[in-house]
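Hi X.,

You mentioned you wanted examples for the new student's onboarding notes, showing what a folding record looks like when two proteins sit in one file. Here is a clean example. The first protein comes first, with its sequence line followed by its structure tokens.
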Amino acid sequence: MKGNKRAYQVIIAILAVVAVALAAGNVYFLTRPDEPPDYQVVIGVPKGGDAVDFTQSEILDHDETRTVIFGLIGAQHVTESDLPTADPDAVMHISVPEDGIIYYHSSIWLEEDGVWLRSGDRLFQYLPNDYGGEEMAQIVQKQLDLGAKSFIE
């Protein structure tokens, strides 16, 4: 009986060490401010047709990049008929700077109820305000405001 109790204590100690190591690793990867984000997220202002102005856009920082990536992961898939019919408010590109390839391109509509996204001809997504849409809309609006300032100056 004593041997079983000792074995359980060793197993619990090992599990505790593993749990602490995993938690510390997550904290490190989520809060490493000195390194640039793994992905480069840039939001531009549509200029009519297929033209997009990225000249005044800033590359998003860690927190903003994380908000955008998790927002895309959590967005609901919708049908094309659900998308707004107006021209998009913004265009977003996600790339890895070292590769020089755009891995994700999306048109964005900012609506009262959330953020609508279209990527290509088949992926249509909706991110409600309650599930991260409001935070994503604030990030997009900040970038749009930077683009608007360039026209005023």
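Then the second protein repeats the pattern, sequence line and then tokens:
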Amino acid sequence: MDPGSRSRVDQDSLPTSLVDPLLESVEATADLLHPSSTSSLPQWYTPHRLMALFCSILFLAYLDMGCFASNGVNGSLEPRMGIQGDFNLSYFADGVLPAAFMIGLMGTSALLTSLTARFNPFRLIGIGMALWGIGAVACGLAQGFWTLLVARMLVGSGEASIITLSAPFIDDAAPPKAKSRWFAFLSVFPSLGVAAGYFYGEAVSEAYGWRVPFFLEATFAVPVVAFTLLAPPVDLKGRSKPQASDPGTEADKAGAGDTQGSRSVLLHDMRILHRHPVFLLNAYGYVPIQACLGAFTYWGPKAAMQIFDRPKAIADNTIGALTICTSIAGTMGGGYLLDKMGSSLQNGMTLSAASAAVALVACEAAFLLARSFVVFCAVLGVGLLGLFLATAPLYAVSMWAVPAEQRPSSQALLVITMHLCGDVPAPPLVGALQGVLLNWRYSTAILVAGLVISVALYSIGIPLAKSAPDYRDMPSCQAVENQSLQSPDEVEEAH
């Protein structure tokens, strides 16, 4: 390797090297407590216990999102209250805060792609939730917009681990004939957490002020962090731990050739994933859905309160209850329907296309045509049902359309794509539109129109999915993928 190439390797390795000492110390401590951490599953493990643990973590993580968006915590300029009132934030600046959260989440998701090849993914979830708790405390201590912005990025960075790594674990644990329903059940808890966060944020902030809910969240995270860092860990199928006697194994497993480091591993994995068009259409098709969910989550209670002149508590509680009901019915219904239709890639894309079409029509009708709060909630409920119906097919197709070794990378790319193009720009975009139009009906309807893109991309994917390979229960394809990605020069050097 030439000196210039070595320099590039060192630069690529920098992001990972900054966190290596922390992760290595965590694994060393865990090995002292549980020295027999080889191939056998830990005594505490059953598939249902693992599911319960991840559902609890997701609920807690998304409780923060609902809490932050609640009228009690987020507040308003007139009357002056909560975060927006205390820090005198415009609608656009207020909308930037959830975008900062997503930026932190996306950046860490990309880093996790390389870290899972070197450290146990279960431990990474513990590290992430510890970071999440620190970020929650920082939110409660924030003294202005910029400190709160950094705190929200920290919370997002911590949340990335459970969002990126939970689906591959559940794909391993779920019974083959019920995988869609397991994905659906797991996907219910983010929505439940957001909805519960509306109630939680409103109730606690009303009694103790908007800072206290964040301190309580951090307290709730302590037992989760302790268990995921100290209990005997579970590992992902298809993930081979590098051997100390072979320094080159790690790079070979990552498929990075002569280069190592998080950037080269990530780029290599992205090259592989972009050879699977069904995965890409599934991921990009979900972007407008994620944008709508992100905007509704953040602006929904405030929009309902101002459109129909309802008290903030009624708006928070009604939108929260509507989110709970539609998320459970829609997400579980999507998993059930996919299993009943036959859990194939083509059926997953078909169900997603139909769900997006229903959501498009119903959400536009709710915001543009409804003239009473009751009718608005009923029609919006149908739209939310359509949005949530697409959740289980999203995760199922993203797991089955790529080789098993690429599942953590596929989830990282999925998270980056749907957040970078979806709910990162959506809240500030809607906030900026509202600042200009001063009409919540038009501001939200413009965003909802983007669901046309979802319907189109899923429809394109339906015929492609019919002939695309389904990687469930297939033998390892990593060697084939790596060989097909080699350049002619690399092949000549190998011989």
